[in-house]
Amino acid sequence: MPGKYIVLVETIFCDNERDATVRQDFFQRWYISLRALASVSVPVDCTVKYILYLSDDKLQEKVLVQAFLASLNPEVARRFVVVPYEHPTDGYESEGVVHPDSLKNPNKTAPRRDWLFEAALTRISVEGYDRVIRATLDDDDFWLPWQLHEIVQAAEGVFEPGKILGVGLRNALVAYHDASKVDVVELTHHMNGNKFYLSEIGLFSRQRVLSPWSIPEDFNEANIARMGRAGVSLTSVGENNPGWIYNRWGGNLSLHDKSKYYIQNMSTFGFDNAYELIDSAVSRLSSGVSYEVASIESSNDAGSEV
Prior knowledge:
Blueprint: E1 5-12, H1 20-38, E2 46-55, H2 59-70, H3 74-77, E3 80-85, H4 100-104, H5 112-121, E4 131-136, E5 142-143, H6 147-158, E6 164-169, E7 171-176, E8 181-187, E9 195-200, H7 204-207, H8 221-229, E10 232-237, E11 244-248, E12 262-270, H9 274-285
Parallel strand pairs: 1-2, 1-4, 2-3, 6-10, 7-11
Antiparallel strand pairs: 4-9, 5-11, 6-9, 7-8, 8-12
């Protein structure tokens, strides 16, 4: 039976990246992220769907994702929804996309991101739920086991009937892989993986055209006014237990050092490698709350359950 919340989390893997070597490196990171998502605890009265957009040209990655899903417990595998899509045959430049960053991720921009979400909705039903949350997670960032609890708890605290809210969580972990260190921080900005749209189900017809990729990073006065004109109220939450790892790999398209966005650095710890990072973070930041996490392993083929 549907519960109070349905949470839809969208990820595009390497969108328009054509270099197979680059994609191979990113898939290793994405695989860690997928494993982490499979281990995320789901709150009572909540359903989560991890929407994975994977373009048709990524044949090897498609096989690997299918194998990953088949390895999962069926209950966990059903949380993942793979949505295939095609690139235009004449490229994105013909659509006027010329900025290098936009050429790498053209499907994170309107109207293409909206087309992808509509395709996802043919595979997902939101009927029967009271409230809808839409979030995004970049393919190289990680969630800790309690992040979904933090999102739902924040939603409970800020929800207002008749409103669409853009909610940002300020507390996060910033992992610098070149320095093998993690800063546990409060941020001025709200990034993908730590922000979301929230509304009652009756407003979903309006929320569905407001992609979470459109939520601004900076909740300043100008953006509050701009989003207000679009029917969205922005609100920032600073009491969350950090559950999102913002990975800085040393070759990011955006500014590598994020210290200028720190409101406060609450602690710093080291880690050995990307595979060990999540365990290190959990051991240091677990609030002591015991989360129910379904077994993610299965000896059965779960692929047909997705």
